[in-house]
Specification:
By secondary structure, this protein is of the alpha/beta class. It has one domain (about 15-135): Cytidine Deaminase, domain 2 (3-Layer(aba) Sandwich), CATH 3.40.140. It is built from four helices and seven strands; from the N terminus they run E-H-H-E-E-E-E-H-E-H-E. The strands form two sheets. A five-stranded mixed sheet has the order 1-3-2-6-7. The chain has a two-stranded antiparallel ribbon with strand order 4-5. Strand 4 (about 70) and strand 5 form a beta hairpin.
């Protein structure tokens, strides 16, 4: 288990979420690297980071993949690697300390039952995390 504490971002009200193109490319790359280009049965999950901008805009400027597994037959069985998630975020903070955890992404095409529980995990890092479903 990691020996550092992550801050919880108190979400600010936002009127618009801006997902930068490099984030979308990163999500598609994560999906393709996971061997899903031909099977398209397993989804991938990752963390969205960025910052709150002016005029109520939320800028998602970066992301990183998180090891994630789920049982396709039983939606109650899944694994989100907390330790990896925290270690990656600590490294990302060294590159750009302004970026905060804003939420998470999943490759779609739909929202699943386990997404509520995954969202609760991300609420530890942001009081109101953004959830982006990317139908690759």
């Amino acid at each position: 288990m990691s020996n550092f504490l992550l801050e919880t971002v108190k979400a600010q009200p936002c009127s618009m979420v801006v997902v930068h193109p490099t984030v979308l490319l990163s999500i598609v790359d994560h999906y393709n690297r996971s061997g899903n280009a031909t099977t398209s049965k397993r989804r991938v999950v990752g963390t969205l980071i960025g910052e709150y901008g002016d005029k109520g805009q939320l800028h998602v400027t970066n992301s990183f993949a998180v090891p994630f597994e789920e049982d396709l037959a039983d939606s109650d069985i899944w694994f989100f690697d907390h330790v990896y998630h925290e270690e990656m975020y600590e490294m990302m903070k060294k590159i750009n300390s302004k970026e905060k955890i804003l939420g998470w992404y999943s490759t779609g095409p739909t929202i699943r039952k386990s997404d509520i529980q995954i969202n609760e995990i991300l609420r530890r890092y942001n009081t109101n995390p953004v959830f982006v479903v990317c139908n690759v």
